[in-house]
Amino acid sequence: MRDEKIRKKVEKIARKNGIAATVEEGIVYLNGKVDSWNEYVKMGRAIGKIKGVEGVVNNLEYPGKKGVAKKKGKKEKIGEADVVVIGGGVIGCAIARELSKYKIKVVLVEKGEDVALGATKANNALVHTGIGEKMGTLKQKLCIEGHRLFPKVAKELGVPYKECGMWIVITEDSIAYKLPKILKKFIAKYIVPFIILRRAKKLGILMYKVSRKELLKKEPYVTKKALVAVFSPTYAMTCPFRYTIALAENAMENGVEVMLNTEVVDIIVEDSRVRKVITTKGSIETKFVINAAGLYADEVAEMAGAREYTIHPKKGATLIFDKECKKYVNHSATLLRLPRVEHYKGGGIMLTVDGNVQWGPTMAEVESKEDTSV
User: Fold this and answer.
1) pLDDT one-digit tens code per residue, 109-125
2) Catalytic residue among 128, 147, 312, 331, which?
3) Under CATH, which architecture does the 2-58 domain have?
4) Buried b (16+ CB within 10 A) or exposed e, 267-278
5) 128 assigned to active site
C-alpha cells in the first residue's frame, strides 16, 4: 500500500521528465537520461522529498558522467572476523571501540594511510546540541543523546572537550522573506527568539535570550546590525583528529585489528548472507559488515547488493586564523538566516580547542567525490 502511494507520485514526476522509476520497500530507483549534472541532482532531490520515500538510488545518465572505476582485489585469505567495519573515520572508529567491549573478533579496514583522513578531517569540530536539526527526526534524537554523552567519552579517552557556548545572532537581514521592513524587524526580534527558546525547552536544551546591549557588551566585535541573540552555553568544541585517533587506539588496546592502506573492492554475499570482504590486500571471512565508509557508503552498499541511496557530494572551505585573533571572539557565533539553505547549517565563527579562530565552512554541490579544490 505504501509503495503504491509513493509510486503514483514518483511516476508523475518521472513521466514529466522522461525517465523511468521503480519503487521497492520505500526505495526509489531512477533510470534513464537527463541533460546535465544539475538535472541529475535536481531529480534525485525532488524524488527524495516525496513523503514516505526512504532512499533514492540515482542511476540517471547525463553527458560527461564518469563511472566508478572498480579496483581489483586479492582473493587470498588474510584473516577472519565476526565483524568487519569498513571505514576509519569517526563513526567507524567509534563503532569499533564499542564492539571491542564484547568477546568478538573485530577488524576495521581503512583505505587511507591513517584514520580520520576522509570527511572526519574536514568538519568544524562542533559538538552540536541538536537545536538546529529538524524536529522529531532520528538525527535530532541521536544528536541530543550524543551531546549528552560526549563529555563522559571525551574524559575516558583523554581528548579535548570545551564548552565555549554559541551565539545565535539575529539581525534584520536574518529574515530573507519578502515582507515589510517593520514586520521583518518585529519577527526577527521577538518571534524568532521565542520559537527557538520554545523548541529548546521542549528538547531539554539550555538556551536563553540576550539583548542587543548585552550581546555587544560581551562580544564588542559582533555585527552592529544585531537586534538580539539566543545563547546556547552547552555548545562545545573538540578535536576531530585526536578524538578519532583516541577511539582507534582504545579499540586496538581492546583487541580490534586495524588495517590501513586497505581498500574494500567487493563483498561476497551467498544465500543472502555476507561471507567475505575482498580488499586490495586480500580477503577477510566474516559474518557481518558495518558500512561506515562515509562519502563512499553508497558504493560499499552496492557491493553487497544493498544500495538504498545515492550520495550527492558537497565541498566547503574553512579559514583558520592566527591565535592573535582570539581577542576578537569570546564565544562561537553563527548568524541566523531564514529560510535556511537546504542541507546547510550556515557555518559561523568558532574557537578551536587549540585557541585559533575558525570561520566557515562554505558549502557547494560538486560532481566528484574526489573534488577537494577550493
Assistant:
1) 999 999 999 999 888 89
2) 128
3) 2-Layer Sandwich (3.30)
4) bbeeeeebebbb
5) yes
